Request: fold
Amino acid sequence: MRLKIAILAGDGIGPEVTNEAVNILKAVAEFGGHDFTFVPLLIGGVAITATGSPLPTATLDACLECDAALMGAVGDNKFNELTPDKRPEAGLLQIRQALGGFANLRPSIAFPALAINSPLRPEITEGVNILFVRELLGGLYFGSPRAWDKAKGEAWNTMRYNKAEVTRVARVAFELARKRSKKVTSVDKANVLEVSQLWRATVTEVAKDYPDVTLEHQLVDSMAMHLMNIPRNFDVVLTENLFGDILTDESAVITGSLGMLPSATLGGTVNLYEPVHGSAPDIAGTGKANPLGTILTAAMLLRHSANLEQDAAAIESAVNKVLAAGHRTADIARGNAAGQHLVSTSEMGKLVHQALAEIIDQRQSMHAV
Ligand code: NAD
Reply:
């Protein structure tokens, strides 16, 4: 398998966590005899320093020639005085738009070894593995008209979707559900909003093409409650932009740390993979950053851009194994709990590498038998 991957390390802890994820991808390439090329590109504050722009044309052009893009994070306090369109974060918004991905995937997984990190009781989080599919390019964040009429003291936004936008993201959710437990929960507010009625009717129509997948509908308010009460009931959760923004953050408490959360944005010219966290300037350069969110993001890249499901699953198992052995970066360590070993960013990366090597070794010797 040949794969050309744009590496957009960015600012703060971005380069530290990306470096560990790239090492894991290199290991997968080596073990599996794949040919992965990594193309380092500038984005965010480092790009402003080097070129004056948070997203240089050269970065975007090179990205568009790659099979996938892996991002670290952007954001640097030294640019706080710049207007929003010139700041590092503008680079992120611009690249997301330019690559055109409309389906944002965010898993919410309860890692058994981290059950204590969630404010929810372990019997509630046990076994939770939800995949959110959030529509990313439509809805309230993009709809027009929008304005703030200060003289009138009035402001308005528009939640707008058309059938084609709903259909394409629904298809992504149903396709993913086919590879998981064959269930989609679509979330809307169809008892009040016309746009949700269109959403519900369209998703129901798309479901007819997937008779092997069960579809259920939930209203967003009750869904917010169910996610905290009975998260195990859900597998693929499909929703629109605003509801997805809120529900995915709510569900982050199931995993327990920002540093553990991966994401993928599919459907554009080039799929974009990034951990959920930001550049964490408070811990940049201290070796305290948790690289697991970015390593799990690399697993998503292999799954969705290279169809290397076994390797993606092996990375996820390696992360579970390292956590089960008690290794913790500072963000996921809990007080003086017994059996924990505090490790740095690079030590965590090496531990995952080692666990991955063992898992792949076992897999290969099983095939040899
Ligand atoms: P943040 O996610 O960077 O940090 C929030 C808190 O979580 C901090 O205490 C940080 O130390 C901790 N944290 C985050 N990632 C961690 C990791 N991998 N390991 C251990 N701890 C981790 O959010 P913020 O502080 O609101 O923003 C900092 C900068 O990042 C800002 O400039 C912001 O605009 C930017 N930002 C970028 C992205 C992105 O690039 N996708 C996302 C969010 C924020």
